[in-house]
Amino acid sequence: MKTKAVISLKFSSQKGLKSFVEALSPEINHPISNQAKVHLEKKEDFVLLSVDAENTTTLRSTLNAYLHWMTSMAKVVELLDNS
User: Fold this and answer.
1) Is the pLDDT of residue 4 over 80?
2) Which of 12, 34, 54, 59 has a beta carbon 3.0–4.6 Å from 3's, enabling a disulfide?
3) What residue ranges define each of the domains in the chain, with the CATH number in brackets?
4) pLDDT of residue 46
5) pLDDT bracket for residue 17 (50, 70, 90)
């Protein structure tokens, strides 16, 4: 069964948004599984991450990996914006 999830993050600055997308791009360009397709898109002050997977197990594991990276990068961007 094919599954899909979309995650959106709002950024307070375009600089932070750009930094986030650039940092995550290597992970998008080299997916962790050939059973899932990951797409990253900028829309205004949001980043949209969509994951299409062959099954729910692959979707869950792919989301867990990307959410971990996204959380780490968002914290770094927040620190940079506040300094």
Assistant:
1) yes
2) 59
3) 3-82 (3.30.310.50)
4) 93
5) confident
Distance between CA 69 and CA 40 in Å, rounded?
13
Q: Are 16 and 78 in contact (CB under 8 A)?
A: yes
3-state secondary structure the chain: CCEEEEEEEECCCHHHHHHHHHHHHHHHHCCCCCCEEEEEEEECCEEEEEEEECCHHHHHHHHHHHHHHHHHHHHHHHHHHHC
Q: Which of 6, 12, 68, 61 is nearest to 39 (CA)?
A: 6
